[in-house]
Specification:
Length: 403
């Protein structure tokens, strides 16, 4: 038996008047999900424990079977694992987003955050901006590391945890009340604007009609994590397929391999087919038992508040990831169990993560069951089947208790 998780990040949402009361998942054309739903188990699962911030970090740990209340030490340290940063026990890692702030002639704190991703800036351009930050903000004990797109790291040697606000939680707001209380971090953020505002890369971006990456934004602080080995816990050899450092970091921490997919970038125009092909190759020909395919696009479109683009992202997951993956496994004669779900909702109207339960679909190629007419939030809720401790759901997928 082969096991697959297809994680469509932020896919769940809330009913929208623009869609006649449907969610973006309901409104999307999803023929593969519609084919699987009537013969699959549907239900709801709470991936964010009560009292914890709803993020892809806590939620994906849950989906992987790690109780965030035990294993979560912060988002950024998981990303540090992904890019090979060696952390000491006393180090603190911070996410360093390259964000877009408004550019009117006002004090830094009076600016508005327009885009948490700077139009999903390319890693090549971001690396040049990070080099400028490292030179301009140089001070003992702090080091910058390049990640992917707008997502980068700051390591503070012998640092301390700071309570900082994720930029995607305050889109469209003036930033003053969300800036760090720590004077060193506030000063670094203010100075980052001075360094980046007229950087040649940002001048070129403005000419191209793109958002400039004109400020650093620090958040997601945490210390070095320690996760039990996934194969030792499950008996399954696993591989992660994601463009996002956070997910790759969870995989590294869990002793899983990571697949490289050319053109996978975490955006709407990622290499969907490449992800499906990598999973099929791993499961059918490379001896892996478990594949985790993570697609970031629905979440990014939710953050941007783009209804049609989020619908498109969901349709791409259905037709460009699920379809070729299922067809490949069937053609190869593989028995498989497939779990489809988001990690958390990213509703269009709030443009950030929320902590509600998410709908899941569990398909077993050897054992069809009576399911629902479609896969969405409503049909998941209608089953009355609920996993209040979402980290236990993977045991159900794998048909065994975790060690």
């Amino acid at each position: 038996m082969k096991y697959v998780v297809v994680l469509s990040d932020g896919m769940a949402g809330r009913p929208l008047s623009e869609l006649d009361g449907k969610t973006t998942l309901e409104a999307a054309e999803t023929p593969v999900m519609d084919e699987l739903a009537p013969v699959s188990e549907l239900g709801m699962a709470s991936m964010v424990p009560e009292g914890m911030a709803p993020g892809s970090d806590t939620a994906n740990l849950s989906v992987m079977g790690y109780d965030p209340r035990i294993y979560y030490t912060g988002r950024s340290p998981l990303e540090a694992l992904s890019i090979g940063v060696e952390m000491e026990e006393s180090d603190v890692s911070f996410r360093c987003n390259l964000v877009t702030l408004s550019e009117e002639d006002v004090p830094y704190g009076e600016r508005t955050i327009l885009d948490h991703s700077s139009d999903e800036i390319a890693t090549k351009d971001a690396a040049e901006l990070l080099k400028a930050l490292e030179q301009g903000l140089k001070q003992e004990g702090f080091s910058f590391y390049v990640g992917t797109s707008y997502r980068h790291l700051l390591i503070w040697k012998e640092g301390r945890i700071l309570d900082l606000t994720p930029p995607h939680d305050v889109l469209g707001r003036k930033i003053e009340e969300y800036l760090p209380e720590d004077p060193v971090f506030r000063e670094m953020m203010e100075k980052s604007y001075e360094i980046l505002e007229h950087h040649p890369i940002n001048e070129a971006r403005r000419r191209q009609g793109l958002h400039p990456a004109n400020s650093a934004w620090f958040w997601g602080a945490g210390k070095k994590p320690s996760l039990p080995d996934f194969q030792e816990r499950t008996g399954k050899r696993g591989i992660m397929i994601s463009a996002v450092d956070l997910l790759k970091g969870i995989a590294v921490g869990a002793g899983m391999d990571c697949a490289f997919v050319e053109g996978a970038n975490g955006g709407l125009h990622t290499n969907y087919e490449g992800k499906a092909a990598a999973a099929a190759e791993a499961l059918i020909r490379q001896g892996y038992d478990f594949a985790y395919i993570h697609v970031e696009a629905p979440d990014e479109m939710g953050h941007q508040g783009q209804i049609q683009d989020k619908i498109q992202a969901i349709e791409n997951v259905d037709q460009r990831v699920l379809r070729p993956l299922v067809e490949s496994l069937r053609e190869a004669g593989e028995d498989f169990r497939l779990l489809l779900l988001p990690d958390h909702p990213t509703p269009i109207e709030v443009r950030t993560h929320t902590g509600e339960a998410v709908p899941y679909l569990l398909y077993d190629s050897t054992h069809p069951v009576k399911g629902q007419e479609a896969y969405c939030e409503k049909t998941g809720e209608a089953t009355g089947r609920n996993w209040p401790e979402g980290y236990r759901l993977i045991s159900h997928l794998l048909q065994e208790e975790l060690c």
